[in-house]
Design goal:
The chain is built from 9 helices and 8 strands. The protein is an alpha/beta fold and about 260 residues long. Helix 1 packs across helix 2 and helix 6 packs across helix 7. The longest helix has 17 residues. The protein is globular and about 55 Å long. Its EC number is 2.1.-.-.
């Protein structure tokens, strides 16, 4: 039985900032990591939660998912009614927009929830509750992807969660714009951004990543991609990196959540 849907949407209105192609790195990762589950599903529904003042991210998510799962459907959900009304003209087969919030006004559990740049305005102590609410709405083999990126999509960090809770953290960047890996610290999701201080695992990870990046400087003559790959390969000796060179070449690295989770107290 699905959780009872509240009479009013749960959550608060976001700034709504959005730009075309902003979430391309997150979308490509989702298609690679979750495409098989979407293809297997009888009704592969994905939610673009809090898509903002314009519907571009939902439109693009549908196109990218259908490259790997042709039957995928996307439901854009926004807590601001005027944004839903503005998005309605963009509806088409496989794409619709609904008024709602964290309660998710759906008749069946979705296979994917993408919540990008939604939780940054919340307090850190609210994040776990939101995660738990959204994870409880997932299909048994569903995935929640929650994270943050800059305005034009050059730098992203996101957490992937299953119904049981957080699994991994992914760092993704346009390598040509990167000075050091710790540049990504400003895009840490709300659960981690205030933990980038000495004594916290995410701070130690970014410190080690910067050191590996510096040690890989000779590879820069072959390009930023080769330098990144070498730096990530060095990281694997000390951190539980869970992906491989095929993803590293995209300017990504994914780490087990447990290794970066905030310390208690």
């Amino acid at each position: 039985m699905s959780p009872r849907t509240p009479s009013r949407p749960v959550g608060t209105v976001t700034r709504g900032t959005t730009n075309p192609n902003r979430l391309r790195r997150m979308d490509r990762w989702i298609a690679a990591a979750h495409g098989a589950a979407l293809r297997r599903a009888a009704d592969p529904v994905a939610v673009d939660l809090g898509y903002g003042a314009a519907p571009w991210t939902a439109v693009e998510l549908l196109a990218r998912l259908r490259d790997t799962a042709p039957r995928a459907r996307v439901v854009g959900i926004e807590i601001e009614p005027a944004r839903v009304a503005a998005a309605k003209p963009y509806e088409r087969e496989g794409l619709e927009f609904r008024h709602g919030g964290f309660e998710l006004p759906l008749s069946a559990p979705p296979l994917l929830i993408r919540a990008a740049n939604v939780l940054r305005q919340y307090d850190e102590d609210q994040v776990t509750g939101v995660w738990e609410r959204l994870c409880a709405r997932l299909a048994p083999d569903g995935l929640l992807v929650e994270g943050t990126c800059d305005e034009i999509g050059r730098r992203h960090v996101w957490v992937a969660l299953g119904p049981e809770g957080p699994r991994t953290v992914t760092f993704a960047t346009r390598l040509g714009s990167l000075h050091t890996p710790s540049d990504l610290a400003e895009r840490l999701p709300k659960a981690l951004i205030h933990r980038n201080v000495p004594g916290e695992p995410v701070h130690a990870f970014l410190r080690d990543f910067d050191r590996a990046w510096a040690a890989a400087a000779p590879y820069a003559s072959y390009g930023a991609r080769q330098r990144w790959i070498r730096a990530v390969r060095d990281l694997t000796g000390h951190w539980p990196v869970v992906d491989g060179p095929a993803r590293w070449r995209q300017g990504e690295v994914t780490v087990d959540w447990a290794a970066l989770a905030p310390r208690e107290g």
